[in-house]
Design a protein that fits this description.
Blueprint: H1 3-19, E1 34-42, E2 45-53, H2 79-88, E3 100-104, H3 117-130, E4 134-137
Parallel strand pairs: 2-3, 3-4
Antiparallel strand pairs: 1-2
Length: about 140
């Protein structure tokens, strides 16, 4: 990417973030935006799924002016908060009860500026130990 393209992307990100000034989500950074258990059709059959929407710092790209994600983020979220959010979503539940774990982060799960590698490792270790068959995350392809 040329310097002028990088500068343009940076300016567009700044403008887009300015459109979304309200921080959403719980007052507590250790709680996810939401979580629920359900059954979904996945890979040809109905499977038990745990769906978690993590409260994160938001998408680092932020060039999509129609995107609500910047308003569903909090700039003070840290790695320890994300692990606490994940664990609190399982309170009174067991990850072993699910074949599918779906994680939304209102951004890019594999961008280390948004979700630190240690958080990903913690979640993947827990999923593997619990016997979860599928982990579904959201991310732009450039972070894969």
């Amino acid at each position: 990417m040329s310097t002028s393209q990088a500068e343009l992307r940076q300016r567009l990100s700044s403008l887009s973030r300015g459109l979304h000034t309200a921080e959403a989500g719980p007052a507590r950074l250790d709680q996810p935006l939401s979580h629920k258990s359900d059954r979904i059709l996945f890979d040809g059959r109905r499977r038990a799924r745990k769906r978690i929407v993590l409260l994160t710092v938001g998408c680092a790209i932020a060039t999509c002016t129609m995107c609500p994600f910047p308003s569903e983020s909090h700039p003070q979220v840290r790695a320890e908060h994300l692990i606490e959010q994940f664990e609190s979503s399982l309170a009174g539940d067991r990850l072993e009860n699910y074949e599918v774990l779906t994680l939304f982060c209102n951004g890019n799960f594999f961008n280390p500026k948004e979700i630190e590698a240690g958080v990903c490792e913690h979640i993947f270790r827990r999923a593997r130990a619990a016997g979860v068959s599928y982990v579904v995350v959201e991310s732009l392809p450039q972070y894969l």
